[in-house]
Amino acid sequence: MKILVTGGLGFIGSHTVVELQQKGFEVVIIDNLSNAGIEVLEGITAITGKVPEFVKMDLRDKQKVNQFFRDHSDIEGVIHFAASKAVGESVENPLLYYENNISTLVYILQELSKKDRARFIFSSSCTVYGQADELPITEGAPVKPAESPYGNTKQVGEEIIRDTCNINKNLEAIALRYFNPIGAHPSAHIGELPIGVPQNLVPFITQTGIGLREQLAVFGDDYPTEDGTCIRDYIHVVDLAKAHVVALERLLNKKNKENYEVFNLGTGRGSSVLEVIGSFERVSGEKLNYRIAERRPGDVIAAYADTTKANNELGWKAQSSLDDAMTSAWKWEQKIRK
Length: 338
Ligand code: UFG
Hints:
With 338 residues, the chain is an alpha/beta fold.
């Protein structure tokens, strides 16, 4: 069974391609290589022993998208990762984000709407909840006004899919709201490859640990949390990847209750920034150089998932601990810097 994975050479995409291939799916990857290298294909192949079909393409080219779906009429499902994801950059260049994240989504849905049956999995984010009033966060929590154009593309993206599913019952879709994906494949053949200075906590920690960065700035220690630093739900990327396969199988096996569904993907456990640093120091045996800095504008105090719906409906549960994820992230960092 053939599955299209857009952005399949990216961080979460590549791990999902691995899980799909290991479950016997045939994968076609579309990626424009804007934030991923072609060598990721080799990493995927090294783990699975299978070379996925790869098409270098920019999904903003509507005609090419149309041609692709005409040439690949046997695609049974689409997992759509291709998108830009840097919050700060989205503030600087909102139209780039609306074009990359919204236009491409519309073009794919237009093609899927021509099919008798189509299944679609969308990368959404816990960012849609903003600072939730209640923790842990359930899927029923209200969507809050987006803090950035990036966040807005996830909210609007979900609405576009919901509206399309409303009138097109041949389209079955699931939006997956990720909490904080971290880590790498335990084989260290694939992992996260941030371009430039990492914006996210864990790659910044591992790059500091390896000596690429001088010092980590902890953004604020005066938040109303136990140790004063922000709390997030860090989920191992392999657990996250597995959830995509389970969600796709739910649609393929017609187990979905509605033709548009939403699930939180997290561990259900919140960790503070200082706890994440502690985990790094424990698994690496290295002392991390860090200092307490100003709060970062736009950061919410605490966000962690209520995973009951994903656990019960998808039959999926995150397996890895924070230390497991950090061990894999550190192994990956050491490998790529060699
Ligand atoms: N942090 C630091 N120092 C750093 C980087 C991060 O202290 O150098 C802290 C942040 O303040 C935050 C925590 O580490 O408390 C996690 O920060 P990340 O940037 O790794 O993750 P975020 O929770 O901020 O970002 C996530 C997703 C984004 C999404 C955003 C919305 O990665 O895609 O949530 O809130 F847009």
